[in-house]
Amino acid sequence: MPVPGENRRCFLAVLHFFTIILIIITFPSSTAAIGDGQFAYYGFSNSSLTVDGAAMVLPGGLLQLTNSTANMKGHAFHPTPFRLRKSPNTTVQSFSASLVFGIISPYIDLGSQGMVFLVAPSTNFSDALPAQYLGLFNTRNIGNRSNHVFAVEIDTILNSEFMDIDDNHIGIDICDLRSMTSRPAGYYDNSTGGFHNLSLISGEAMQIWIDYDGGAKQIDVALAPFKMAKPTKPLLSMPYDLSSVISDVAYVGLSAATGLAGSSHYILGWSFSMNGPTPPFFTAQLPDLPRRAQEASRRKVLPIIVPIVTATSVLLITLAVFLFVRRRLRYAELREDWEIQFGPHRFSFKDLYFATEGFKNSHLLGTGGFGRVYKGLLSKSNMQIAVKRVSHESRQGIREFVAEIVSIGRLRHRNIVQLLGYCRRKDELILVYEYMPHGSLDKYLYCHSNHPTLDWIQRFRIIKGVASGLLYLHGDWEKVVIHRDVKASNVLLDAEMNARLGDFGLARLYDHGTDMQTTHLVGTIGYLAPELVRRGKASPLTDVFAFGIFVLEVTCGRRPIEHKMNSDKLLLVDWVMDCWNEGSLLETMDPKLQNEYDADEACLALKLGLLCSHQSPAARPSMWHVMQYLNHDLPFPELAPMDMVQNRQVDSPVAYCQSVVSDGTISGLSEGR
Ligand SMILES: Nc1ncnc2c1ncn2[C@@H]1O[C@H](COP(=O)(O)OP(=O)(O)OP(=O)(O)O)[C@@H](O)[C@H]1O
Ligand SMILES: *[C@@H]1O[C@H](CO)[C@@H](O)[C@H](O)[C@H]1NC(C)=O
Ligand SMILES: *[C@@H]1O[C@H](CO)[C@@H](O)[C@H](O)[C@H]1NC(C)=O
Ligand SMILES: *[C@@H]1O[C@H](CO)[C@@H](O)[C@H](O)[C@H]1NC(C)=O
Ligand SMILES: *[C@@H]1O[C@H](CO)[C@@H](O)[C@H](O)[C@H]1NC(C)=O
Ligand SMILES: *[C@@H]1O[C@H](CO)[C@@H](O)[C@H](O)[C@H]1NC(C)=O
Ligand SMILES: *[C@@H]1O[C@H](CO)[C@@H](O)[C@H](O)[C@H]1NC(C)=O
Ligand SMILES: *[C@@H]1O[C@H](CO)[C@@H](O)[C@H](O)[C@H]1NC(C)=O
Ligand SMILES: [Mg+2]
Q1: What is the largest CA-CA distance in the chain?
Q2: Most buried of 279, 374, 479, 640, CB within 10 angstroms?
């Protein structure tokens, strides 16, 4: 009985009122047997049903014919039999039956056999088989007309031995499970006449009407979702005279059976009447069908959950593999056996990656001729580092190179930048140095805006510091280390403004006494000694030459090579020489000093710079002597400008250098900045 939505509450209230009145007046329980030749069960609490097998009445009043256990059968009969004929040997009278039922299957798409409404001479079905026999027959009596069974099957399994049409059908059975007629479950819409499929195992309550017209000898069966009124057009309609089938005294009952799978067959309400329509069912009177979720959630959920979980885990694994591979690629390093000895100096790329936050541009300290330098913070030791990424192509030299830089890493001096370690990747060498908070000296000398100018005392300390660092490299240690790239940008200033000689990436190591022949020319134009350009031969004296240029640079505040307006290149050395010749040596002093300097020290620095950058290596002092002069431990030799000029070449080193570069014998040259 459909109840329009807005009137529903009102209707239900009235209904309740009448129900209560009805109960009080007529019935002691919710179960009712109305008069003779008919009955109606609105739920089954306290009913006198005859049940057997798995059938039972649940506490809420729901009749459960089977639960979800496999291979079960259950029966329920109205306890008193009916006489469906007026007298023996006459035809069977009209009768109607109606059921509100629900089938709950643990599986979304699989039922388990089914249930039947039946009219039979007996309630003893102990011989009947479960499963496809639906608790009705056994192999012996099936199909035997003498069993006098009329049934309407609600079948959820396709049993080909009984020629079932599908696994979701309603059929009319006479003494047999081979239906006389059957149709897929569904109903015809009243207004449109269209057919709507219904799934018997949907877990929704449905109503079935079985009507036998004794006059017309016609059986009609209709099905509809519960709460929908009976469709005008029945699902099944079959002309048949049940007089030959139904016994004189017949029981009206229900049967259900499960097969390999199990499903619960529930009856909410059941009515029967002879010679008249069945009384309607009211929603409020009937017990509730358990939700599919309550009974079947675990098993129902599995088929849904499993694919989701599988898909999710496949996705997660793929993601994990992807991330792992990406991570491996991102942090990939080159490690070879020979590196084991350098173990303590080896940094993992991952640590450096995190220290520099992925080599962020905001961490970039500067870019040199060989690569970029980043500032980093090692999370473990909370130590600030400078990370220099040097790209290299040749794999042959790398072993010697690493050996060198690691042994250089053992050098300790207050005027050199400590190399902390290295890391190696494909085509890339990463060097890790102490971080110098004040950066490189060239920024103080040439950058006007950011840094205050260094005063003379600081500059002279820096010159002494660099000299001391270079002396340590050249002699104090057990090996001669030639720096090979002494210049202002490789002099870094620590927190106390001490000069620290950095960048040993280009340096080569030589044992004392061995030939100091080198194969590659490296260095920066402007700092290259002429013999180095000519013969590619690096020696401590080529470092002294570069140191001399550096001293002049710091004292005069000018670059070693200045580009003049008329595109002539002016060498700083030549200019200082010229001034000295003209007797105005101190005019070369950096104007930013504003004449605040110690004249003696300034003269010493300028002359020392000139002497160190003498064209002839033999004329240059060693670093040991340089230290002596600077500390006034040794008087600086009296020199005239003429002593310097003698060997000065007409060719400028730059011109020479360029000619050599075009011959392809110089590698690793970087333009002075
Ligand atoms: N240990 C360090 N601490 C702080 N800053 C550094 C450190 N090492 C390098 N830098 C900064 O990084 C910049 C680039 O250094 P890099 O050594 O790559 O270039 P360069 O010295 O100018 O030339 P070259 O490649 O010939 O050495 C430097 O100018 C300096 O400012
Ligand atoms: C059903 O019977 C029990 C006792 O057997 C009784 O307590 C209960 O009230 C009855 N219920 C109804 C609806 O009559
Ligand atoms: C089904 O009912 C039978 C008895 O009728 C019982 O033994 C079995 O445990 C029940 N199964 C479930 C799943 O409730
Ligand atoms: C009923 O019909 C059978 C044969 O169909 C007959 O043998 C029998 O006598 C009849 N009984 C009565 C009471 O008419
Ligand atoms: C049911 O029928 C079987 C034989 O078919 C019989 O053995 C059994 O006793 C009967 N049960 C009842 C309660 O009559
Ligand atoms: C049908 O059943 C009756 C009694 O139960 C029996 O005598 C008869 O032989 C059966 N017929 C067949 C074809 O099995
Ligand atoms: C009903 O179900 C059958 C198969 O069982 C299908 O062929 C038919 O198209 C369905 N009809 C509608 C209206 O869904
Ligand atoms: C269908 O129509 C009949 C009469 O025409 C009516 O009694 C019945 O309630 C209708 N059913 C629906 C579902 O509308
Ligand atoms: Mg450098």
Answers
A1: 156
A2: 374
